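Posting this for the archive.
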Amino acid sequence: MIRDQFLKTIQKFRMIEKGETVLIAVSGGADSVALLHLLAELRKPWKLHLTILHVNHKLRGKESDQDEAFVRKLARRFKIPIFVFKVEVRNKAKKEKSSLEEAAREVRYQFFEQMAETKKANKIALAHNQDDQAETVLMRIITGTGLQGLQAIRPKRKLNRTFLIRPLIEIARGDIRKFVKANQICFREDRSNRSLQFLRNRIRLKLIPLIERSFNPQVKKALARLPHLLDVDLSFLEETSAVFYRRLANREQADEVLFPRKSFLQLKPSIQYRLVNRAMRELSGAELDFNHWNLFLELLTTKDKFSLQLPKELFISLSREAVRIYQKRKISRASFSYEFSVGDSVYIPEINSTIVCESLNKRVRVIRKTNKNFDIFDGDTLSFPLTVRNRKPGDRLQPLGQKTSVKLKGFLINRHIPIEERDRLPIVVSDGQVAWVGGVGMGEAFKVSANTKRFVRISLLPGS
């Protein structure tokens, strides 16, 4: 029966194709040894190229070394190549201030990924079973998660250029034990699996038996079904959000992602969440947690402008134009200064933008505009050549419509310009006086009036 279910799972999730190279993660426990035996049976009929991977975490002294020796013996018996990675996980966890489980998982997957690249392997087979799935679902419910977290252990998951596959994911742990016993298959027992130090073990040894006795004898099957039930709906949401991401996401700067405000606000929260989460992943590999998402939604419905810090030194802000997810830039005082006149187009490499200055041939009717990337000036008030530079201490500006000048720093604060953006703003100066803060606003002394005869447009364009 276990062989039939093993094959059904492989075929249902298209885990393995004939002739592929498959790496098998073998710890020496019952599950991984059973997986090795089952894949070894497929080796000839499916023309598979198998390799064993083993990680010695050095957590149990001699027992860890004995596990390694046992797996090496299995490799010799099956005449399958083996690669072993030895690492002091306890030292790594202490150094990185992480749990033993997190540190061990990280080194395993780094090793698996490295070997997949070296061996040009298509698949990496792991021995997670139905009970592991149920325990993971329950653990994530207890610790808190969203729908994606409830997908728990995916039967097949992309890992860079290869796939992680779990052919035993639909088979109960008890059935695996019956299989190894019936076939007189030896395996190693890991004493740490009985330790109540770890949350997963407490769920396996204490909580699930209690639920089975008092609430539902089939709770493990019920929990293990949940990821499969969610998979179809979540796949639809992911595909839909991917379409919107391609359509709306702007990645002109390497350290930020912009979404047009109006389009973003028209989307359902489930799509908004996935757009933000995908942007965070692309920028720094971060994930959007519930607390930050909840606070973001609250601000989104109560504030016209805001900035919120996210995990891994990311920020998300709302302006009149966009929702912006960005990495906080190191504030740079690298100065720039360029001269230009009418008819010039000057590229500013320090901010990857271009200033364009042009004379307009006919009188302009000044109207209220929303595009802040250009302004129209009374040409007779400008002293050419103009200078475009970044801000300097002591800069002042008389904002449009105001009778007195203010410190440029205060003006930018009032306009909610993030501190890391202020030194990147192009300041257009005419005869020592600030005429325009590129993309933000112009000076009162340079505005178009009824007496204007010469109209000059200055624009700020992205790129060169």
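The chain has a mean pLDDT of 91. The CA atoms of residues 278 and 287 lie 8 Å apart.
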